[in-house]
Automatic annotation (TrEMBL):
It comes from the Bacteria. The keyword Transferase applies. The lineage of its organism: Bacteria, Bacillati, Actinomycetota, Actinomycetes, Streptosporangiales. Residues 20-129 form the Histidine kinase/HSP90-like ATPase domain. SUPFAM superfamilies: ATPase domain of HSP90 chaperone/DNA topoisomerase II/histidine kinase (SSF55874). Gene3D superfamilies: Histidine kinase-like ATPase, C-terminal domain. This is ATP-binding protein. Coiled coil: none annotated.
Length: 136
């Protein structure tokens, strides 16, 4: 069982299109002082990829849309959960095939490679949560 020592959830939105850089910056700020030993560059990259998918494929990308971000920290593990605003037609997944020249489709592949564990959840309200965990 993992006992999370600290946690924070924040709704991030904009009157225009959600700024993914701002999501990354706020996650990094939330981790200041409590995330020693974690590769925050990798964490930031994964946050950007997941938030970008939310903006591209759900109502999070509409004016006034946003994401709900939860950051959890334990002695040796960090977990980030990003929930979109729903409205997507599909389910977040890694494409079966693709070319190195494809414009999109590699974000969750990077998350899979960088995270110790990751996954997706779909709420009854149609919102998707993509989460990842990294270990020290």
């Amino acid at each position: 069982m993992i006992v999370w020592e600290g946690g924070r959830t924040e709704r991030m939105c904009s009157s225009g299109v959600l700024d993914v850089r701002e999501v990354r910056a706020r996650v990094r700020k939330a981790l200041c002082g409590c995330a020693g030993g974690f590769d925050l560059d990798d964490v930031g990259l994964m946050v950007c990829e997941i938030a970008t998918n939310a903006v591209r494929h759900s109502a999070s990308g509409r004016p006034g849309g946003g994401v709900c971000v939860t950051v959890l920290v334990s002695a040796g593990r960090l977990r980030v959960e990003i929930q979109d605003d729903g409205g997507s037609r599909g389910h977040p997944m890694i494409p079966a095939e693709g070319s190195a020249w494809d414009e999109c489709g590699r974000g969750l592949l990077m998350v899979r490679e960088l995270a110790g564990r990751w996954g997706t959840l779909r709420g009854e309200d149609g919102r998707h949560t993509v989460w990842f965990e990294v270990v020290r």
